[in-house]
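re: ur question from the group chat, yeah i did fold both. here u go
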Amino acid sequence: MRKLFYLILFLTFSSCNAQQKPMNVKHHPYTNHLIYESSPYLLQHAHNPVNWYPWGKEAFEKARKENKLVLVSVGYAACHWCHVMEKESFENVEVAKLMNDNFVCIKVDREQRPDVDHQYMDAVQLLTGRGGWPLNCFTLPDGRPVWGGTYFPQKQWISALTQLSRLWKTEPQKMIQQAEQISQGIRQNNLLRLSTADQPFKKEGIEKALTLWQKHFDMKWGGNTGAPKFPMPSTYRFLLNEYYHNQDKSLLHFVELSLDKMAQGGIYDHLGGGFARYSTDSHWKVPHFEKMLYDNAQLLQLYSEAYRLTHKPLYKQVVYQTVNFLKRELLSPEGGFYASLDADSDGGEGNFYIWTKKETDSLLGEDAPLFNAYYSITASGNWENGKNVLFVQKGLKEVAETFHLLPQEAEGKLTASRQKLFDVRSHRPRPNTDTKVLTSWNALTISGLLSAYGAFGDPLFLDIAEKTGNFIRAHRMEANGKLWRDRRNKKEWVPAFLDDYAFTTQAFFDLYHYTFDERWLLSAQQVVHYAQLHFYDKATDMFLYAAGEEGPAIQPKTEITDNVIPSSNSAMALVLAQAGVYFENDDDSKIARNMIEKVYPALLKNLPYYSNWALLLNSYLYPSQEVVFAGKNALKLNREFERNYTTALVAGSLGKSETPLLKDRFIPGKTLIYVCENKTCKLPVKTVKEALLLLRK
């Protein structure tokens, strides 16, 4: 058994299966079962000589019938090493034959089927202590994992395939025993360690947790110490929330430092706007160049909230440039947003974004020295092979003085230079666009756009958000509140998961918040009610990630800890707390409270990975406030109000309303603002200034 376990650790994974017959497709000697899918990532593999199947019953039935191991190979369109492994192994006819003869091979788009990714990532992390993509996991014909890994060079991949196929033919019982051990380990790891103690919420607890976290603050470059560095929007949003309540200026300083350094770093696209997924170093300089919708959606919200507190011009610039990027590069004609831009283009990673000094000198002429100095461009290159990533290390004033210019003169020249390079770049071979339209990521984008609308009042932001909201209602939502995550092909849909429900409910609440159109409230109520009926687990007071499975399952997953994207349970707890107030539903409020109580001890031990939960916790540690606008000028006053940072829940109506917060608030001929705390409202006021004073008391 030990021998098999170490053999499995030695191996390391990737793709699989079948018929190598040439198809009647122009210019393609091979076509497999992925040709009928809609995912761009799966379609990239549709003409591999590997006989790939999509995730589903057909592949596992074939594996059982032929008594073959299954390869579940998981990746995504913007994944650089996924492309590398495809070129080295999956496009190689001899390697494909080895895979097809001995395995049934399944390709999975992790963004389309995160439930499948969760299952097999747990297995690989248990086996190897690490994870990543491409994720390659070998399973028994019933789907139970026996061995796996991430990226494999071709030689190592062939060795893994050969040894696994031989083991299955000669010692199948040992592999079955191994699969059972792995499955037991996964079940053990997935057991929820939730608190059952009645531990009261205390501000002192958060203060101690913050002190522990602050030891890992990078006070030179922002973010946490070490590399790589990921933007973690929910962590900074919590710190802004905490600063608002306790006025600890060190927290605001750290958030500003982090946001400044990200916006100045190579992780930010200084020519076209938008952020890459992460920085490979500790100072935000060299990105992993893929640009993801979910990152930019959340960073849009973060920079908009930070602007409300600081009014920094840099944050406004980042917001407007990021919206322009989203609109220009990712917005579909139907109103939904595409998933991502690839890291690779023109045969290499980041080629679309990088420059040589020779190029900038030639294109910018007399303005090149200023541009090169400001963006750290050198003849030897600030990255590799003489290439440069645009990266700001010195302030504009300091660089301007070097060239005997006023800061505004230098900025004018830099703006013109950026436009020149942007125009040239637009003619380069472009990174591929992953045209999946994922419901949860679109919902995050709606919330980001609306936060930007609140901060800056630009009607374009509201218009795009409303169109995307209408897209979800028209193309991803059923009348009973059921959602779909994505379209799988012309006939089939991908089921929605808990994050789709939680983020969509929040997006609909936000649309109501900024429009006072009660149809959005009704839609939010339908979606959150459907999620409660189909995902809620009464035994744990938490929600399962998936309501049902297509194909084999190890154990239902419950997502608790926050990461780059907040966990689906923390997001659901937040929307349930809001639903409890909007609809005067005590059951929703009780579930939200129970959920935060269950994670409270873990939150105090590891606050950065419970930061979205901590936003909810603060609504219990500090007074819960609502601001209600009633009257014909309600929207106008709300726009003025939203330019300020607050944590209040907002409701409003231009006329009579039966919504609980608004009932009997409307007085003809007047527009009044009610500031309420814990369901008790103070006397109404007429101006935003008065309302803000009442909130701060």
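okk and heres the other one u asked abt
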Amino acid sequence: MQQILNQWSWGMLLTVFCSTAKLSFGAEIPTTELSVDTQDRLAVMAFWNRYYTSSSDADEVMDWTGNYAICSPGTVSVAYIEKIERRINFFRAMAGVHADTLVNTGSTVVIGTTDPYKPSVSDTKQEAAEIAAVMFSWAGQISHEPPPALPYSCWTLAAWNAAYRSNLAIGYHGPDAVDAYLREEEKGVISNPTAGHRRWLLNQGSTDFATGNTPGNGTDTLLPTNVLYVIQSPSEQVSYEPKYVPWPSAGFFPDALMTRLWSLSHPNADFSKATVTMTGPDGEIAATITDQELLGQGAPTLVWSIPSEWAETDVDADQVFTVHVDGIEILGETESYSYEVTVFDPDELGMEQPLTGTATPPLTGANYHFQAIPAADAQGVDVLTTSSADWEEGAENGTMEFIEDGTDDTYELSVSNFKKSGSRSFRMRLTLPSGSGLPPSQTLSILRETITGSGSKLKYFLKRGYMGSGEYLDVEVSHDQSNWTVVDSVVGNNAVDANFSARNIDLEEGESVWIRFVLRYASGSIYTGNDNRIGCFIDDISISNADWVTAKSTLLPSSHADSVRLDEETLGEAPWVGMQRGLVPWTELGGRKYPSPISHSVTFVEAVGGFGEWIAADYPTASGAFEGDLDGDGLSDGLEYALSTNPSEPGVLTSEVSMFDSVIRLELPLAELKEDVDYRMEISTDLQEWSDTGASVLWTDDLLIGECFVESPAVYARWAIEPK
């Protein structure tokens, strides 16, 4: 069910929504004092992961103890309220306003002198919002001025007060309702052209909100509700520097929050004569003003809509929009305001993660260098142990170890009535939702991380049973089990295929991928009933020319923030000649790990020693030449090799010189004598001509000693260290 109702009441607009979205639940983190630099892509990405994602899946922690039958609002968990508080402050921080607001502080209700119904002055906003939420769920509808009559069986003076001074939603509760208030549209349909809910939530001076929520019962008889008390008493207003507040906010903006309804607020503005122009990726975009005069809903605001094709919530590439507003009057002066919004996908890192290092590390180990990202929480490299992908998934009994069943429990995933080979196949079918809404997607995931090779193909056999023309079986791949890309799609045709047909999908070489099958509803009717031919049947899933990951470990940087070492200690076992491993660099932002899609294959070889192996294995970013200077300290990489010093850390060469009985002596600390290096002492009388005639070199007790008899004390001595 989807119900849209707009009603003007005391400067607030009421919208009814009915849909839900689920995101991953993050670790417990702060809910207040939030801030973010929206001009920094990685900062917004980390902010999204840490604060938005962690305020999702609130229904899992709601723990509502209310009772509809006796109009009891009960209680919800502290964790649930924290998610709502965090979500509100996330949006406020994105908009650049005070993001330290509190929820359910115990503050008392706001009562107007002309209110027809007045609760006790000691009633709290929280109590009022909670009973109002029960009232609306029981009634099955919402209103800013509910009468003390049916269908509002749970009506009280406090419930009326909350209804009058709150944002209201039915079909949503908790953080999902907060999203709906900011979006102000549903599936491309604008439900609140004045953006009233948004204006109250982003009001610059607000510090105190209260909320009441019900979870519903999973059917249309009792829907979830949210009541968010937004009106502030004067004492709850914080002082602030007046500023423009755009939404979508300027800078980088997550695509999942995109909406058709844009707005620009300013507490001192008169937008009644303002005009707005917009450009997007393909040039000018039609901007239709939907409100520019209404007052009483937070700050004065200019509101406009854009075509639905430019409000995508899942973009493949960054979309840059520029906004220019003319004719704004601020305290008697006319001015303009311009800004830019870059809509991006926070599920994609948006940059390559190169890994530099040898493909043939010696048994003694090698270093691997990645690009340091200062904004990252952490970076590292996963080490993959792989085996040839000789598996085949066919739904046979006892072979489902690597299958994750994401289908409805009203039918069996493994069936025997149709099969390509063996005795069974996988079956997926759409089912009716438990309450309102659309038929939920069904998923079958293969829990095998696969490293693709040259000519890799995903192959499976498909037999369509009764599938509606609005049903799609999508095959998807992912590098992180979070962001999925469709690589094959088959639509139903309202008939049962005569046979299984082979489906072959080319896969990019050298990538780490996961595979899943998703049966989705798009439109029309679905087949119901117990006919075992309903749905689609999948058998003999395999990947050719690939390896699958049988074990995984992680390398973390030690002394160097941009490199890791692969050796016996970090592997946890002694490498052997021919040992193969896959190396996948990753970056963590806001508690979320972004693995590179590229797996780098390495094979251990016998250590042969020498400068070439040393520089390639341990310092892969160096030039590789003996005369190179990785750290720019004036000491060549070859010299640092010869002296067993670190060419990536600037240093100074110190050598002692002395003379006794006409013998000049040089001493140089040296832990190891390299067999492929020539160590010589040379003498000169003019700094032009140098010779090692008569000079001897001895290495003993970690000391390189050079001596030469000279006839005159007016001589110069130096070390000559070169490759043999």
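fwiw on the second one: The mean pLDDT is 92. The longest helix spans residues 78-95. idk if thats what u expected
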